[in-house]
Design a protein that fits this description.
It is a single chain. The chain is an all-alpha fold and 427 residues long. The chain is built from 20 helices and no strands. Helix 6 (122-149) runs antiparallel to helix 8 (166-173) and helix 8 (166-173) crosses helix 19 (383-408). It is globular.
Length: 427
Amino acid sequence: MTTSAELCDLEARALAQPPLRTRYRAFRDGWAFPVGIALIIVAAALLRLCVPAGFDGIGFDENLYRGYVELLSKAGVTNYPLLAEQFIDHQLEPKNQAILPPTRIFYIGGGYVYHRVFGLSPLAALHALSAHFSILTVVVSAVFCWRVTRRRDFTAAVTALVACAPTQIHMGQHALIDGVFGFWALLVMWLLWENLQQRDSTPWLISYAAALAVLVMTKENAAFVAATITAILALNHWLRFGQVTRRLVITTFAATLVGLTAVVLAAGGVEQFVLIFSLLKVKVPALAFMIRTAGGPWHRYLVDLLLVSPIVVMLAGAALLNIRGSNIPGQAYVAVFVALSYTVLALFPAGMNLRFIVMLDMPLRFLAGVQLLALSRRWGRYQRPLLVCAVVALCGYELRQHYILFIKGSLYELVTEGLIYAQGIIK
């Protein structure tokens, strides 16, 4: 039997507890956001590690990277210049076509580390490296959005869109360097923003310098990112993204020089480095695949992006046109980064491939998120649930595109011809 004193005590405890609605709000404000982001990242990992890739062969690029890791495993990492010597000997043969250079030292070296540390085969090591950096891209996307906007709904929406991006999933399922390069480009874009906001902060400068140096050591396309960064620093007087200091400018050029020096040393010296790219300059334009698929006008990338993610591209385009009508911090910075990067890439019309522009996957989804929020402001009292439904629907559509292009269509190379046929535009 419960005494009256015990009943009074139970009643007092019940009254002392906050109402259910208050407890829900406390959970939502304190734990719902980090738990939600964590679940999105887990979902992104499962998409990259568990979903079938469609194309189950060994691509041309994958085979070359595997060969470099195998050779490095036999020769030892201290004999890295041997890769450059063998590349030069191979390319000096007139009958041999152009192949990928061994100057992409972070990816090849990373594959070697995974091979030695985890006991994976060279190809499996490269697959694991690509998958891990594709997942890290989702993580950095979340951190970037939160640091720039401090908007929970916006951060969750953009992170989910990046997690479901068809090209990002594809990059994480194959031994391709472009997803890894895209991660470092995104990291550099975020850290440059941080340094523009926080004048001469040593931790941020060191982080930015390290990321930029590794970017240069990852792929020669770093020249496009470096040109974009230089333009942003030069235009900041008018764009007013933050403060450009002498230390930031010096750090930018010093980090680029450090990365380039590491590549030159890995190539065996300046003479061999110059010879590698001289041979590529002569042989690459003669590749039958390049002649048939890699040309086009400046809007070639827009066509390919529309074929893969049409809704995201249209939303991002609308955000670019409405750049002054948004209250999302950082929108102008991301928009300028996208516009400048695209312009630099389009200046080279003889070597176009959608893989080269996957570094803009997250910035485009950032802009698409801006436009979704702008549209949701007109939805009245149902703004939040309708916004959630819109993001979920768009993620579902992106996953459907991945199924059509990469699982059903078994695409490996992301060229216009394959994208058109995979979607049944031309049968």
